[in-house]
Amino acid sequence: MQSVCEIPFGKTITYSELAEKAGLKGKVRYVSSFLKHNSRLIAVPCHRVIKKDGDYGDYLLGRQFKQYLLDWENSLISRP
């Protein structure tokens, strides 16, 4: 799904926003299921996709690692 690769470094998007960008409006479960089976975790940055309520949701390597990746990206962006 090309739309995932277009999420900027250090930014997040919701599953529903991603579904809409991918032309799959209303297919949030399809998008989340697709990302759940992503085997190219760094090349396809699915860790940047979160739930509408701000919750991180599930991640193949665990929720804590997803949070770590997002925090790491944000720390690199905030450096002078």
How would you summarize what this structure contains?
With 80 residues, the protein is mainly alpha-helical. 44% of the residues lie in helices and 5% in strands. It starts with a helix and ends with a helix.
What does this entry look like structurally?
The structure is a single chain. By secondary structure, the chain is mainly α. The chain has a single domain (2-77), classed as Arc Repressor Mutant, subunit A, CATH 1.10.10.10. Helices cover 44% and strands 5% of the residues. The chain contains four helices and two strands. It has helices at 2-5, 15-21, 28-36, 63-77, and strands spanning 13-14, 49-50. Strands 1-2 form a two-stranded parallel ribbon. It is globular. The N and C termini lie far apart (33 Å).
What is the structural class?
Answer: mainly alpha
CATH topology: Arc Repressor Mutant, subunit A
Report how far apart the termini are: 33 Å
- Give the overall average pLDDT: 89
- Helix tally equals 4
Q: What does the overall shape look like?
A: globular
Low-confidence stretches: none
Number of strands: 2
Helix content: 40-55%
Main sheet summary: 2 strands, parallel
- Taken in chain order, the helices and strands follow as HEHHEH
Looking at the overall shape, the CATH architecture is Orthogonal Bundle
Name the assembly state: single chain
Strand content: 5-15%
How many domain regions?
Answer: 1
